[in-house]
Amino acid sequence: MAKRTEHEFVEDVAGRGGFTELSRKILLAGIGAAALAQEEIERFVNRLVEKGELAEKDARKMIQEIMEKREKLEQERRAAAQKSRPAPVTQADIEALSAKIAELSKKIEELRKERSE
Questions:
Q1: What are phi and psi of 27, to 5 degrees?
Q2: What are phi and psi of 90, to 5 degrees?
C-alpha cells in the first residue's frame, strides 16, 4: 500500500466532514503520547485556519486548550517522578540508625557470651 502524505491525509479526512472535531481529538490524545512543541501545534492549527477548516478564534482556543493539557500532564509527570524519589537522609536518620546498630551489636555480644558459658 502506498504511503500517503500528510497533505493527502488531511484532504481525505476533511472530505469526510467533522474535521475540526477530529483534529481536536487527535491533538488532545496526542498530547498524552508525546510532548508536542508549541510551534508544531501552532503550525498545524494555522494550516487549518488557512484552509478555512477552523476559525481563527477557535484556533486560539484550541491552542490554549492543548497547551493547558500539556502543562497539566507535565506537572503530573513531575509530581510522579518526585514521589518516586527517596526522601533525603538527614543527620537524625543517621544517628537513629547508628544507635539501633549499637543496640543490636550489644545484644549480639550478650548472646555470644551466654552461648560460650
A1: -65, -45
A2: -100, 170
CA dist 42 and 69 (Å) reads 15
Question: Tens place of pLDDT for every residue, the chain, 117 residues?
Answer: 455 555 555 555 555 556 667 776 776 666 655 555 677 777 887 887 888 877 878 878 887 888 888 788 878 888 887 787 788 889 999 999 999 999 999 999 999 998 887
Neighbours of 74 (CB within 10 A): 12
3-state secondary structure 50-111: HCCCCCHHHHHHHHHHHHHHHHHHHHHHHHHHHHHCCCCCCHHHHHHHHHHHHHHHHHHHHH
